[in-house]
Each structure stands twice: as C-alpha cells, then as structure tokens.
Design a protein that fits this description.
42% helix, single chain, alpha/beta, Glutathione S-transferase Yfyf (Class Pi), Chain A, domain 2, 12 helices, 2 domains, Rossmann fold
Amino acid sequence: MAFSRIELRNFRCFDALTIDISSKSNLFFGKNGCGKTSILESIYVASCGRSFRTSNLESLIKKGSNSFKIKAYDDNTGSILEVKKSKSKAISIKINNSLVTTSELARTFPSFSIDSKTFFYNDNAPDYRRKHLDRGLFIASTDYAKDWFGYFRGLKQRNAALKIGDISQARAYDETLINHGTKLNYLRESLVLEVKKIYFDFVKILEQHNSRAQLFSEIDIHLKSGFNDELGLKESFIKSESADLKRKSTTLGPHKADIIFESKDLLIKDIFSRGEQKMLSILWSLSQNIYLEKFFKLSPILLLDDLSSELDAEMLNCFLPIIKYIDNRFIFSNIVDSFNSKIDLNEQSFKKFHVEQLT
C-alpha cells in the first residue's frame, strides 16, 4: 500500500498541513528552511516509525506543542494510518485503529530514503551497502527476515565461542549459519541480478537524451558474498578456523557481504565525481524500488531530498527524462522548480508543490 494523502499536526515547522500525493512523481520546492525536508521526513516517519534525520523523535514535535500527529490515507484500500508521538511517551502507531509494530508498519507502507549517505553509496563502508540491500528484502520477504535473524543469532553464539577459544563449541553453530546463510546469499544475488537489469534499462533511456549517460553503462555491478563462492559456506568455515580463532570472530560469511561497483576494474569511488556518484546512487535506488514492486507486489515510496545538490546542470538534465518512466511513488525536493520546460508530464503523473504556499 502507499499513501495518497497525508495530514500533519505540530510536526517540525508545521502547525497543520494536508497534502494529496500523486501516485507517481511529486516535487516539493521552495527556499531553504521552508519545510521541504520536513515533509519528506514526515512521510518516512509515517512509513517506518523513525526519522532519516535524527534518532530523537521528540525533536520532531513543533516548539510549544506537546505532541505531533501524522495521519495518512490509502485511497485504494481505504486504510487509515495514525502515528502519534508525545513528549516522554513511546510512539503510537495505528492502522485502522489497531496498534501495530514498526516492523508491521514498514511492511504495510514501505518507503526508502535517498539521504546524504546514500548519495555517496560507494564511499560508505560495506556495512552501509549491506544494510541498504537487506532493508528492502527484509520488508519484502518474511522468509528473508526469518533467515536473517536465524543467521545472526547463530553468528552471535559462534563468535562468543571463538572469543573463549572453544572451536568445538563454535563448530556447533556452523550448520545453522550454513542453512540460513545460503538462503540469504541466494536472495541477495537474485536481487542484485534483477536490479541490474532495471538499472541498465534506465541507463539506455538516459543515453537517448544525453551522451554523458554512457559512463553509467560502463559499470560492472556484482555481489561479493563474503566467502569463497567456489568452496561454499561449509568449506569456507573449515578453512577459516585458524583465522577465526586468532581474531576471535567469524571472518567469513554473508555478514561480510558487499556490493561492488567498478568501471574498467577501478572502484567507482576512485574515478567518479561527486555528482556522478550521486546520480549512480539515485539510479540504483530507483531500480531497487522498482524491483520490490515488480517481484514482491509492494508499492514502495522513494524519497529524495535536495535533488540538484552536487549535480551540475548537465548531470541534472541527464536525469530529468527518466522521471516519466517511474511508475511507483517518487517524492523529491529541490530549491527551485527546474522542470517546466524540460519534461513533458501531465498533472496526474507529476505534481508540484511550492512549499511556501502550502501553509
């Protein structure tokens, strides 16, 4: 499901605000400090119960108020969502007047944020890219969630045994890690393979409009599983026992996985400009969102704050044509509306909101 309307009360800088959202692309524009990022943040809070800007939800309450409230509607199903956070009280989340957990919320109204870290996806540590990969699968597949928890519970126990130097006890958890880890690796590989197809389809579209997009087609994208694929997990664990005992932790496995982006055998982070890295991150995130819709029948919202930041005019123009090919909800912000003369979209598929005129 996905939101078609959202109402805010005492959230950040807003006393009250109601917005009807397009089923496809939505642009919020206006000067710095007018509340563009806060609107995107409210949608993210309403979809997963947390913020992409802060871990302190109480700070989202408008100054002088005791609580904030977000109410969202899904016209297709008639579902009503209410999220409320009062000072010194836990967040309350209800769907159709029934209390739900944040995990249930995230699976019902999934959304993904392209934030400042995502912009430079390839500059971050493998742990960040792994979490970015896992979050989509975690929301989409309950089986993946079960295997993920099963693997990491076993990993915790195995590491505890290695910490005291007991290899026999550590081996007792190998079968658990192998069973769950093999499934995790398979689903990750499937995701990367299918998202790559969507990504390269996007790049072909961009190349028709701007020759500079060719650099995005000269990329090799692959999953580094975190262990020796030819040996498999079982043999990898056996061969790494000495290293595991020495380091007192499990050195190989899906918990060490990473997504590698290379061009001509060079890492993207070493050869792409910041604007080119940001564009690659946007295209990959869009592709992953479409994959989740196509293969898991989800309707995820993708949020992108400050589109033109770090992008030169040519790189921004390189991206614009792709907006009309995005079928699921894409909500983004920009300081100015740069889109009137550059893309041909009807009002139903693309809505624009001048934030300073909303209040």
